[in-house]
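yo

u said u wanted the structure for the complex thing, so here. seqs first:
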Amino acid sequence: MDSFDAISPLDYRYYSRDKNFELLKQFLSENARIKYQAKVEAALAKVLAKNKICSEKIANEIAKACEKVSAKEVYEEEDKIRHDVRALANKIREKVGEEAKPFVHFSSTSYDIVDTANALRFKDAAEQALLPALLEFEKTLMELALREKETVQIGRTHGQHAEPITFGFAIASYVSRLGGRIKAIQYAKENLCGKFSGAVGAYNAASLLFENPMEFEAEIMKELGLKASVSSTQIVEAEPLADLMHAIVSCFGVLANFSDDMRNLQRSEIAEIGEEFSARQVGSSTMPQKRNPINFENVKSFWKQFMPRMNTVYMDQISEHQRDLTNSASQRFLPEIFAALFLSTKRLDRVVSKMSVDKANMKKNFENSKGMLVAEPLYILLAKHGHSNAHETVRELTLKAQAEKKSLMGLAKENKELAGFLKKFSKEQLEILENPEKYVGQAVVKTKKIVEHWKKELGI
Amino acid sequence: MDSFDAISPLDYRYYSRDKNFELLKQFLSENARIKYQAKVEAALAKVLAKNKICSEKIANEIAKACEKVSAKEVYEEEDKIRHDVRALANKIREKVGEEAKPFVHFSSTSYDIVDTANALRFKDAAEQALLPALLEFEKTLMELALREKETVQIGRTHGQHAEPITFGFAIASYVSRLGGRIKAIQYAKENLCGKFSGAVGAYNAASLLFENPMEFEAEIMKELGLKASVSSTQIVEAEPLADLMHAIVSCFGVLANFSDDMRNLQRSEIAEIGEEFSARQVGSSTMPQKRNPINFENVKSFWKQFMPRMNTVYMDQISEHQRDLTNSASQRFLPEIFAALFLSTKRLDRVVSKMSVDKANMKKNFENSKGMLVAEPLYILLAKHGHSNAHETVRELTLKAQAEKKSLMGLAKENKELAGFLKKFSKEQLEILENPEKYVGQAVVKTKKIVEHWKKELGI
Amino acid sequence: MDSFDAISPLDYRYYSRDKNFELLKQFLSENARIKYQAKVEAALAKVLAKNKICSEKIANEIAKACEKVSAKEVYEEEDKIRHDVRALANKIREKVGEEAKPFVHFSSTSYDIVDTANALRFKDAAEQALLPALLEFEKTLMELALREKETVQIGRTHGQHAEPITFGFAIASYVSRLGGRIKAIQYAKENLCGKFSGAVGAYNAASLLFENPMEFEAEIMKELGLKASVSSTQIVEAEPLADLMHAIVSCFGVLANFSDDMRNLQRSEIAEIGEEFSARQVGSSTMPQKRNPINFENVKSFWKQFMPRMNTVYMDQISEHQRDLTNSASQRFLPEIFAALFLSTKRLDRVVSKMSVDKANMKKNFENSKGMLVAEPLYILLAKHGHSNAHETVRELTLKAQAEKKSLMGLAKENKELAGFLKKFSKEQLEILENPEKYVGQAVVKTKKIVEHWKKELGI
Amino acid sequence: MDSFDAISPLDYRYYSRDKNFELLKQFLSENARIKYQAKVEAALAKVLAKNKICSEKIANEIAKACEKVSAKEVYEEEDKIRHDVRALANKIREKVGEEAKPFVHFSSTSYDIVDTANALRFKDAAEQALLPALLEFEKTLMELALREKETVQIGRTHGQHAEPITFGFAIASYVSRLGGRIKAIQYAKENLCGKFSGAVGAYNAASLLFENPMEFEAEIMKELGLKASVSSTQIVEAEPLADLMHAIVSCFGVLANFSDDMRNLQRSEIAEIGEEFSARQVGSSTMPQKRNPINFENVKSFWKQFMPRMNTVYMDQISEHQRDLTNSASQRFLPEIFAALFLSTKRLDRVVSKMSVDKANMKKNFENSKGMLVAEPLYILLAKHGHSNAHETVRELTLKAQAEKKSLMGLAKENKELAGFLKKFSKEQLEILENPEKYVGQAVVKTKKIVEHWKKELGI
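structre next:
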């Protein structure tokens, strides 16, 4: 297939053209799917030999055959017999001698292979691709947070200027949320499990062959570095994978929120940060002056495409009796979600590494609201010094300040009722009221604390 | 890209290996996307010429260049300048003389091209691929409904035997629901529209060139056979496309319901229908006797994957101010939904065309409940003949029948209170009570009516 | 129940405390549900009489009883017999004489009543509550669009200043999108249908009583002002209601987009519009100066709560065989979506009616980008006058302008290559380049056109 | 409000009429919401006193006032000032002396109260309502699994008879999946956290009052038995609550799957289990004989209503900058999901406790497929004894058996090729082939193991 005849934007546009394509395809492609299934078939043979069901020699012969199987030939066989896992078994069988043939796929049901192979490749994909990428981005965020920990920025709630923070502190909240999601993915991928309990989960066939079929299952899982399902039917219970997908999708949500924040900070009127723009890059096909936050928009757009797929994951929890096949095609799409989060993480890492912070604009925006920012500290300090209705009094004063376009502190000083209280204020307190940029609370300290916390938690 | 390095199951497994691949790729591939965009660029040139902005010769030169542009070269250009539509314009421009260059993409913004091209290809995809497939399946269902219109089947509500219908009547309800969705798709695809209103929808650039830019937009749309948006910003408003996607997704829901019904009728204990099974086909990798309803399960599974994508469509309604780009990547995935419904429709058509109906089992299942089925007609007829508490009386009688494992009519005849009423029953009425297979109401008549109704509505 | 012991925010906070509570509860409450079901039972009795199954007198007696039935007594009866519709029938039956009792609910199955009653009340809710509210808001938007049709505003794409429009034009795009959704709701509510085809849709019971049971069904529908389903099972096919819910949910999406736009325009740095703020209103419990766009935020939040419920609607399309009950509880929640859209519409209407437009800030924001805005007209005019690489030339000029902090037109005039072209520009063309606020294209004309179009379409 | 004027089915039908209403309303009602907020205000006062900001006496006065505050008065105040948390503060303030007034809500922002109170009540709701209900149902399932651990049932995959299991084993898989979800909920509720970091998360106001505001926050959390957020803005980061909602929604998925299985086992043709039916209960308003699986259908229907609300949870992860309010209204609906899962769990517990198991039908269904069930053990044993193409050979034999309506073992014995192999089979092996009901593998052992595993894990 000409790759531009492909229908999936991941295939023709994003995943295949990304420089991490070679890495990702090891886990997420159809070649990978079949490679992992063959790996499980090889582990089965090895454990059959360990249990004297077949000889070591046969197990090795099968293992070698498993390494040689290609997706292409399996698909050709499937076209004939219309069963994908049996097609795989047939192609392995073809590659071994007569004596070995009966022990290929021996005693197992398709989903012993499929679910175990999926658990393995999703675990590998998390460990070898997704988590390293997330950790790298986490480090980039940590560096940014520390670098900008003292850069005063106006905090915004409801899109309105609220109270001062620092830009590093704002970034630190993403360090923390992303850190939490990395932990969640680490936790969930450890709980993925495989199974070798046969067609209905009761080890029916295996019971004909082994004294202790559960021990047999445990040995195969040990061989592969996986947990065995506590209780499977034809398939592994859906929840461990659902937990991983939730961790992934909710991690995507953190990236989406970060992206929204960044593209809002890039608004023409705010202009506190900027995506790097290459010299040859075209911003708009008709407006030559445009510089759009296309990378942040792309991540948000990916999130919109992939987040709703959790609905599929939840619907796939339902499989009738010892299973039905209605989760088969739908689960084949799961690797796309891994790829999407990986690509978005790498994209953000790239952009944030080179992102410009416009301190002048940050200062300018802050200055614009400066006059009103003292409302909170003023009310707190009035209350602290015994004013019994401080919030309401200051609220009315701010209305007056807005109406008369005067400074709030100016009006406060003119106010007779307040005079007595203001006198009680300490030097430091007055300094904050005169210089609201000092009213950043624990922003600097907390930024450092958050970064330290997550460095320790994540071992980076 | 090796097609098994692809990540999308549509690409490596379903769409690319389907015999309708050549048809679908004309509308749904990335090649198609770019081909349609070039088609819009050509129409633009043509209308520029019509308005004397450039010469006919130039327009023809551009039109020819548009036909030659390939996705591959556009992507290579995009890699350099990082703007997809400008890349397309550049590649067209390369193929024309100096004099023509300025008129390529002239005065238009990217989304004049992108949204118009999408409207066009989605309309074509609906008209030339999706609707023909749906109509073909509709005909298959109609034939089945008419063929089996008199095959008595027990109607089931809540999985419980309820009242007799005919199998054809059961199928007719899908004839009707599918017919309704075909109409909905036909209606919605007619409302797709394009736009040529420029970067913010106010025809800013075009106003420099034309007396009546809205007329200019209308001419391009006429050239392409599309409606112009009543009101666009940088983009066409999201709703016409959302309506089409709703029609498509809700059509998928009808197929999913049909598939669930069919696979339930294929349960071992029910066994009223069967998917055809090829001689070489393997049902299970470990249970050689298995015959699984894999096609119906596949359709249900596709529905689970694609239905939730309506959430993306709804989220993509939100685009800030004159637009943001957060719908760009996500909308690139829309063709997948077209392909998924098309493939599922073709699959069902194939399976239903060869589906076996096991009339013996249908009869057997019906016979098993026969004794209880007279409960409703008995209560209705008692009430009709003046019994004032017929429902409760019969309900108690059925409990007794179940407890004593007797026939309901037997008990009714023994019952003194009812004797007087039973005497009043007409011969036909008694015949239904004795032969519940005659209690199918209007099943036969209605089946014919439904098929006729939809033949007329759909012009088939 | 103490209303603050309620669990639904609609009940304790939004719907019950709204001044339109009395209106909405007529269609959306449980009292309404039962009232409408009783209305259908009354229509049934009337048509039974028309068909001489019972006397006129009996039909009138039943109709009177139907008017008297209360939800409370039906629920008490249901507690005993555990069947809701039979409970309703019992309570009606209690209120009529012996002779009339057998004809209450006669020959009908529960869902003849339930689905027909729902179609009726949803149609009424659309016609009498939702559509009037939407039309009122549409008028408010029209007025605002016309009033502000000449107020120049910078158009924004990707959050970046793009090209000039007018604020009225920006509003007109919502006039158009909302108009489209009103039409969609009008269209969909007309297609709601009822049914009287009995327990499995084959008119089994009715066939014992009537020559032409489909005619009988048609008569009841005519009595109620509804269409009859073309093909029902125990239930009306799911699609007509799904279409209405799609129209409603996608209408909600338009309101959500509008709200996002408005709250972004209310950002401290943009400040082009403002929600009215009452004198006693508290913006923040700790920041006395805050003025938050709480109403626009509320509408967006409602959308987030209700949009995903379309997934439920789509899942409810699937009902096994002649139906299962798994759509029963879930469909009971549908009225909440009607209420949510109604309340959000009224909220927006209220806020927009009093919304302040800060023309000074609009102008200020526009002025800030003025210098760069000429990029597009400059490139268009250069191209029009024969420059063969205008877009690229101007793009480079804008980079230079940004780097050197100079005006784009200034640089253009200094540029020797461009001098020859600039000379060819007409006076009007030069005027636009010097006064970019004139570069609003068709914004004013189009605003008027859009409003006229929808006034005509909607008959307002 | 008349409770039948309510719009939420939870309010008028399910939650308010449930016998656990009194329990649930303590956590999930609006009264509870406000009660928990007042509890946080009281904890704040206590810690203020501990830090010598106010006296112990004042703290006690405030704590007492907090206990007296009612939702009703708070709503009345909110009607005036249009800010819900400030309204609460005002009503507390009203109840204390002049000296105490300034210390009510002192230094905190609304969401210090709201998010902390929510974490607390959701934790309590999980611990005191949801988890006890789930554990109770878990025990019911364990008892059923153990009781029926030896009841042979045909295992079903794809709705087709597959291999024998026991009914207890089938139930055990739900013991395990439910056990896993209970653990997930336990884990997630422990991670809920509160915050007291002020309006933008930087402890701005608190820094005016305390040496170590983070320590102050920690003290309040300790007082309430909650963790403090590692990093908050105006709000607690969304993820801990999202994790809990995922645990809850995925637990709902397990119940939905269980319900689907049970209602399928209740199908007329299968009839292996039955919901208890009360003597007065009406199954259908027109079919007096019907016994519908209404409870299992209800649980599935609830799942369809509540599962999609995870989309809202994921969308609520996105809050701009230091927060916007678009998660405010939507989060008010979260308690509904707790209630829905609680009610469904109780419902299932009730039904399963009294569920009848029809062993005769289980045996009958098993017997019907008996003849074909030996396919797998036959092929396994042939392969074990050296047959190199056993799967294919047996597959062909099953086709023959079906075509000729003969027993598979009969044909196998007649087959000359197989004769040599059959001779090698042990007595036990032959016994399984002759008595397929013995081919249940480890079903009995595994059932016991699973139950023991989860008893230990859950400490029950």
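The first strand of chain D starts at residue 152 and ends at 157. Chain D has three domains: 23-103, 110-362, 369-458.
cya
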